[in-house]
Amino acid sequence: MTMQISYLFLREYWWLIISLLAGLLVFLMFVQGGQSFIFSLPRNDMQRKMVVNALGRKWEFTFTTLVTFGGAFFASFPLFYATSFGGAYWVWMAILFSFIIQAVAYEYRSKPANVYGTRVFDTFLFINGCLGPFLLGVAVATFFTGSDFTLDLFNRVHWGSGWHGLEALINPVNLLLGFGVLFLARVLGLMYLENSIDEKELTASIRKALVRNAVPFLVFFLAFIAAILLGKGYRADPVSGEVTLVKYHYLHNLIGNYVALAFLLGGVVLILISLWLGIFRGSRRAIWYAGFGTVPVVIALFMMAGYGETAFYPSSTDPGSSLTLAKASSSYFTLKTMMYVSFVIPFVVAYIWYAWGSINRSRITSEELAGEDHTY
Amino acid sequence: MIENFDLSLVNWSRAQFALTAIYHWLFVPLTLGLSFILAFMETLYVRTGDEMWKKITKFWMTLFGINFAIGVATGIILEFEFGTNWSNYSWFVGDIFGAPLAVEGILAFFLESTFVAVMFFGWNKVSKRFHLASTWLVAIGANLSALWILIANAWMENPVGMVFNPDTARNEMNSFREVVFNPVAVDKFLHTVTSGFVLASVFVVGISAWFLIRKREEVLARKSILIAGIFGLVSGLAVALTGDSSARTLAQVQPVKFAAMEALYEGKANAGLTVIGALADSGERIGEKKVHDVKLKIAIPKLLSVMTTGKGDGYVPGLKDLVNGNPERGILSVSEMMERGRYARQVLIDYKMARELGDTETMASLAAKFEEKDFVENYFRYFGYSYFEHPWQVIPSVPVTFYAFRVMVGLGFFFILLFTLAIWFHRKKTLEKNRWFLWIALFSIPLAYLASELGWIVTEMGRQPWIIQNLMPVHVAVSNISAGAVQTTFWLFAVLFTALLIAEISIMVRQIKTGPKH
Question: Is residue B490 domain-resident?
Fold first, then answer.
């Protein structure tokens, strides 16, 4: 019995780690959000250079978090990894392509003899900036709306739709989260640029753009929250394992989990404060409030999807194939071993914080860029 | 488990993974080695205060950055391809294989990505010592990353530290220590990273040679040749030593691959190691596989026996022994392994069916089998063989492994000679006079890439048809998607990676021609 409780704890612990990584990833997608403004925000080449360099000093963190998020999912819930990646092939491939083109774009865009010209690499950044957050949002939304797959006796996935994941794009609820994440990334991107760049004209443009993006973010995000809380959710019977659609299931999950409720409400309040600070006070610190708000909100969403007798990756066509934490997880031994490894995460966060602070002491200006050896 | 395999899907999936891995490996070894070379150079700058070392460090750092970005770009796809293209594999062994990948992300990637930002942008913002520490941490992070992915890769070749769970129908880890200290992993890590050091050293020596040919940046070139020459020579010798150790381990855990590398069909005592040879079709066949004769052979007598068994008269099994069996030597035939594997698989199917029907009595008796030593050691260990129709299917491509191995080893020794000469001419202050050497050094750069890629070709082609040695053939591991989908992504990757490679080379060449900033 003790072992069973411990196994349950380990599964939930690892789901929390996955949720934390997802939260950090969404926050760090301020890089993608900022990239989506590459053609619209800057008024001249120097402003564009400032925007790109401000974002370019952070792109690796987002990229690394995405890779770690994938690796942690693989290690802790391999059946999800096999089912979602092997089934929703085209969605994941589209996400990956958008990140491949991002990785080189910063380093190559302003280098002499880059063959394709700066505009092409800036377009890569723009594509990644729009597609990355949007598709990741759509992919996560399927945790609540379900996907069209069946698992056979040996857990081999059979995807129902020949579109292999792209069919998620015609579900309005998925689109709500897709656009919600995209506009959140844009809002975060603007706040980050406000924090990092010291240039009057650009700052004025950032504040105007913040209003235009905060409104659709709030509309899409709140509509998604309303849709999942007031709609049906995939409940997994703890004894029989049977998965059924139950009205208000996610609402019950939220109310029944005080931590998730506090995270969601607290996170939303912090995001609203950040918008108020950014829009009405022109504060450079808005990004921090938004960041500390985004992470708990994402964790709360993942808690709703995974905890409390819920199938976190439901099959809309064969509920019996739906994945619960228990069904999809690694063995007790692996989760326990990996738990010890996860104890270094605070140390990792600490050195990132320190290193980040050490090179971010001054804001980006045209003079600062002129004195830099390594610019994008 | 899977009765109908779509071979075109399997082949396209293999091709896609090979394509992405080959492209990725064009950039990784330079990162592994150049990161240490940068750390050595910057250490000299900090210790001596000589601004020339700073200039040299910054020049090579620019090239490092260009290479690093595309390495990152091509790397992300590999991790996710295990899920997208090899989903059955991901489930079967994700419990074990996923762990090193996650550790790689947490321990290595963040270290590398955090301090690479300080390394590039911190020159005017942090202290000299903090910057130097960051450069070292980038090198350590990059090589730590290699450690974890190579542990995962080694596990595929020598699966250890696990037990099969019939309830989940997958292998589960029961010893993280065994996975990490897998003898194949230790050899593979040391051999792979030191080969990366060699490639980076050839790169630095070659480009420095070009500067000397052009009579430009002579101080930078001479100092760089000295650092890279010493680092390359030490690494080259380490590659040779670890290669020898890898071969010994290989002979134990992957004897078919070992025999294919030597094109050894008939097992023999006093076996010599073929140094040079040309394969010719003998006309004989093992099933549908050609048997090759080694012509124009130059061999070192008894060395293969010594490497394999530690004795000059030791018996080295050939491909015929390993496929047809050799009772005198205690070698089972593949057909016998297939029979035993099928029996183990049927037990598993019966167990799953009993579970579906709720037949607890049958379940209990079948589950007990998976605890029995005899069943595990004499039947279940051949589980993967149950998926083959013919014994000859376990033979990899002999010509590919045979030639790739020889060219790789030959180039490895050539690089040792190259570094020795580089150090010698530097010491004698005659680098510029020996223009023939400078030209050879320059044209050795593509050879270093060739050797590095051939190493992986030997490893990965030689272990075909297995994705996990003896447990899972490649064709069973593939995702259930259409061949057309994989074909499409293959060409998308091919076009995109080629386009990016062209840009990378063009930028790199321009930066080299421009030289360091004064």
Answer: yes
Inter-chain contact B79–A71, Cβ cutoff 8 Å?
yes
Burial letters B394-420, b for 16+ CB under 10 A, else e: bbbebebbbbbbbbbbebbebbbebbe
* Partners of B326 in beta bridges: B331
Minimum CA–CA partner of A95 in chain B: B77
Give the number of domains in chain B: 3
C-alpha distance from B475 to closest chain A C-alpha (Å): 14
Average pLDDT over residues B186-208: 96
By C-alpha distance, which of A148, A210, A197 is closest to A369?
A: A197
Q: With CB atoms and an 8 Å threshold, state whether B117 touches A60.
A: yes
* B170-173 vs B162-165, strand pairing mode: antiparallel
* pLDDT value at residue A362: 83
pTM of this prediction?
Answer: 0.91
Q: Read off the pLDDT of residues A285-330 as tens digits, 9 standing for 90 and up.
A: 999 999 999 999 999 999 999 998 999 999 999 999 999 999 999 9
pLDDT at B518: 65
Is residue B443 assigned to a domain?
A: yes
The residue in chain A having the minimum alpha-carbon distance to the alpha carbon of residue B352 is A153
Quick one: B102 and B205 in the same domain? yes
The yes-or-no verdict on residue B23 having pLDDT over 80 is yes
Segment 102-161 of chain A within 8 Å of chain B by CB: 102-104, 106-108, 111-116, 153-159
Residues A287 and A194: their CA atoms lie apart, in Å, by 9
Is A374 within a domain?
A: no
Give Cα separations from A21 to A128, A186, A287 (angstroms).
Answer: 20, 20, 18
Confidence of residue B167 (pLDDT cuts 50, 70, 90): confident
Among A18, A154, A343, A354, the strongest candidate for a mutation testing the B interface, having the largest count of B CBs within 10 A, is A154
Q: How far apart, in whole angstroms, are the C-alpha atoms of residue B402 and residue B296? A: 14
| B1: in domain | no
SS3 of residue B273 by DSSP: strand
* Residue range A133-166, pLDDT digits in tens: 999 999 999 999 999 999 987 888 999 988 999 9
Distances, alpha carbon B386 to alpha carbons B159, B376, B381, B455, in Å: 18, 15, 11, 30
B217 and B317 assigned to the same domain: no
Question: Which chain A residues are within 8 Å of B147, Cβ to Cβ?
Answer: none
User: Sorting pLDDT into bands at 50, 70 and 90, what band is A1?
Assistant: very low
In a domain, A352, yes or no: no
Domain that holds residue A96: 2-333
What range defines the domain where residue B346 resides?
A: 334-392
Show residues of chain A in contact with B121, CB under 8 Å: 57, 359, 372, 374
The mean pLDDT of chain B is 93
Q: Are residues B151 and B236 in the same domain?
A: yes
CA distance B503 to chain A (A): 5
Total structural domains in chain A? 1
Q: Does A81 touch chain B (CB under 8 A)?
A: yes
Q: How far is A233 from chain B (nearest CA, A)?
A: 26
- Round to whole Å and give the CA distance between A112 and A132: 28
Q: Which of B110, B126, B503 sits opposite A348 (nearest CB)?
A: B110
Does one domain contain both B320 and B354? Answer: no
| CA neighbor of B211 nearest in space, from B515, B422, B498, B474 | B515
A-facing residues of B in 160-199 (CB < 8 A) are 165, 168-170, 172-174, 176
Contacts of residue B517 in chain A, CB cutoff 8 Å?
373
